[in-house]
Specification:
Layout lengths: L15 E5 L5 H10 L4 E6 L11 H17 L4 E4 L2 H6 L1 H4 L6 E4 H9 L7 E6 L1 H6 L1 H9 L4 E6 L3 H6 L7 H13 L5 E5 L7 H4 L8 E2 L2 H14 L10 E6 L3 H8 L10 E2 L3
Parallel strand pairs: 1-2, 1-3, 2-9, 3-4, 5-6, 5-7, 7-8, 9-10
Helix pairs in contact: 1-11, 5-7, 5-11
Bound molecules: D-glutamic acid (DGL).
């Protein structure tokens, strides 16, 4: 398939697709809306296939293909992978195959943050599937070979957020994962899954909140700067947001409140 030609584009008013397994990607959408409210956004929450972190690379590529086909039908100008796990597993495989620009979270954030040459020890909390690929380590080392990165998988964190699990052993499920990363003595720790900012109250019992980076804001800035450079910003003054979910749209809407108040129940789309 032909790659989207930025130079001759006349599709500034087309929508931007934003996707994640559930409500976590709303942390990115929130930042996009605050930087660029005049864009038209389509958010896809793949609640049917959640949690992505437990899936294989092959399964995730197939899932993302289906979501990209949905976005292709919607004739979007760009797709934001508001999801670390699919940025790590599916982006490389699919990046040239669709007629829209694709913004992967990890790669974009590493590029943006690489300007800080003083950052030499970085911790990352992420899903198992993300950590398995070591994408954070590879991407940061591209710009600074001297940086040391310690990636820690936190398999219980997404279910805790999406399924409102409360009866868990906090010392183990939160404390032990953090202790591993803190022992590495990082200058900063990235919350490498878009669901994790919701757990900040619990996380900050074990380490100062200032140590942690929620990359959503950096990512949104990167996307908007890139859209500007490629003359892809919407020229109209009014924007819109529409939501889709692959199962349980009602629970998506109530879970969404953790990150963003949404004023419509998502449309159910079977993928
Ligand atoms: N929120 C996604 C991420 O940033 C996926 C989490 C999941 O479904 O496991 O990786």
């Amino acid at each position: 398939m032909e790659t989207f030609d930025n130079k001759n584009c006349t599709i500034n008013n087309a929508a931007i697709g934003v996707m994640d397994s559930g409500v976590g990607g709303l942390t990115v959408l929130k930042q996009l809306l605050s930087c660029c409210p005049q864009e038209n956004y389509i958010y896809f929450g793949d609640t049917k296939n959640l949690p992505y972190g437990e899936k294989t690379k092959e399964q995730l590529i197939e899932i993302v293909k289906e979501i990209f086909e949905f976005f292709e039908q919607k004739k979007v100008k760009a797709v934001v992978l508001a999801c670390n796990t699919t940025s790590a597993t599916a982006y490389e495989e699919l990046k040239e195959k669709y007629p829209f620009k694709i913004y992967p979270l990890i790669q974009s954030v590493a590029r943006y943050m690489s300007a800080d040459k003083g950052l030499l020890k970085l911790g990352v909390m992420a899903t198992e599937a993300t950590v398995k690929t070591q994408t954070y380590t590879k991407e940061f080392k591209k710009y600074n070979p001297d940086i040391e990165v310690h990636e820690q998988a936190c398999p219980m964190w997404v279910p805790i957020v999406e399924k409102h699990i409360t009866n868990y052993d906090e010392e183990h499920a939160i404390g032990d994962y953090l202790k591993n990363v803190l022992a590495f003595n990082p200058q900063k720790i990235i919350l490498g899954c878009t669901h994790y900012p919701y757990l900040m109250d619990k996380i900050s019992k074990y380490a100062p909140a200032e140590l942690f980076i929620n990359p959503a804001q950096i990512f949104a800035r990167y996307i908007i700067e890139d859209l500007k450079q490629n003359n892809l910003i919407n020229t109209s003054q009014t924007g819109s947001v529409h939501y889709y979910a692959s199962s349980n749209p009602d629970s998506f809407r109530s879970n969404a409140k953790m990150f963003l108040e949404i004023d419509e129940t998502p449309q159910l789309i079977e993928i």
